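Many introductory courses stop at the sequence. We go one step further.
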Amino acid sequence: MGQECALCNELKNMSHVAYVGEHVFVLVNLRLLKPGHVLVLPKAHRESFDALTKDEAKEMFEVTEKCSRALKKVYDKHAIAIINPPARRSQRHVHMHLVPADKGARDYIAAIENLPHNVESPPEIREIVREEIARAMEED
């Protein structure tokens, strides 16, 4: 890692940290999409989800689920989890955004990507994806 990671530094200074677990922490986002926007991220600097250990990945999703329940209590809205592709992240440290939302992820993605809403995927594309996922599940 060539330069300091702002998200790693947040864990060090603790001023915006809402929770610290064994492998992950929760950060109240400084650049809110809307109130309740939090980040769930590994304590170790990782730049992609495939770099996570199994324990880090497991804890990330367990903590995400608990944060989602907490946000539902506070805002009476279910949270959507968003994972930006590496090229679209402002920080290299992999993280998930959790945002209380009135709409589902499909609505947000369709609006952001300027895509038609709820269009069925072609069978050949679904088959390619199915095969790749099956292969990925066989890998260690």
